[in-house]
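step: validate -> pass
step: tokenize input -> pass
step: predict -> running
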Amino acid sequence: MGEHHGHSHGLGTVTATGKHRRRLLIVFFITISVVLIQVAGALLSGSLALLADAGHMLSDAAGVSIALFAAWIAARPATSRRTYGYQRAEVLAALANAVLLIVIAVVIFVEAVRRLGSEPDVDTGLMLPFAVAGGLANLISLLVLHAGRKESLNVRGAYLEVLGDLLGSAAVVVSAVVIMTTGYQQADTWASFLIALMIAPRAWSLLREVIDVLLEATPQGVDVGMIRDHIVSVDGVSDAHDIHIWTITSGVPVFSAHVVVEEEHLTPDGLDTVLDRLTRCLSSHFDTEHCTFQLEPASHAVHEGQQHA
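step: predict -> pass
step: emit ->
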């Protein structure tokens, strides 16, 4: 029995990141503006923590620009050489973003270690207003990205970075207050360490998600056994095996399976009916539009090798 494919996909549709491109643009312009302001503030005040926060925000701006570029590339149509188009560009952008975050964290940490052996002279009168301005900008960016954080890896990455920036700005504000009230200048250095430590776990979390996509792991929260049970419950189906579920990019899950059809349904009309039922099942219960089914009789099992799920 040949393959019967159920395709109800939208490979030419806008990807998850593309849907939120305007939000990313707004956040990019806010972030790059604050970076310039904070760098000026760091140079004038001598605050490493403020410079570290500016560096972190610069990585955010770079990450958002990468995501925007990837969203543009991902919208290009599929070809015979790239049958899924360029949608994986978004995942590669998220990978670059994660690596950039790790580099920024290391640089901040090394500079903070170097400063432990010296006595910095920080002008908190300049440091504090620049830190507050950065915190307010981060809060605005966080609200802009909130709606899209669950739909796209790149939007979620940007959201997590901005959240870290907000916490980083809070750390800078606290260190400025400590220096103003106690004169303990090393509070600026310890705030820099804290910012570096906040960046690292977020970078690892994003990197882990990207690796899962690149390794075509089953998407988080998807129960393969439950999906198999749903397929087998479809009228005319007796079994299902070789089930594979993976993600092309954020919001584009893909599914394939071998489905054993009962003997009385092995007719052209019967197979069409079973196929329609299967595609509706995947679409309605598991929000998967791109699915491929190989419909086969029970006797076909002897021609197959080791089977999966």
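step: describe -> Confidence is low (pLDDT under 50) at residues 1-13.
step: cleanup -> pass
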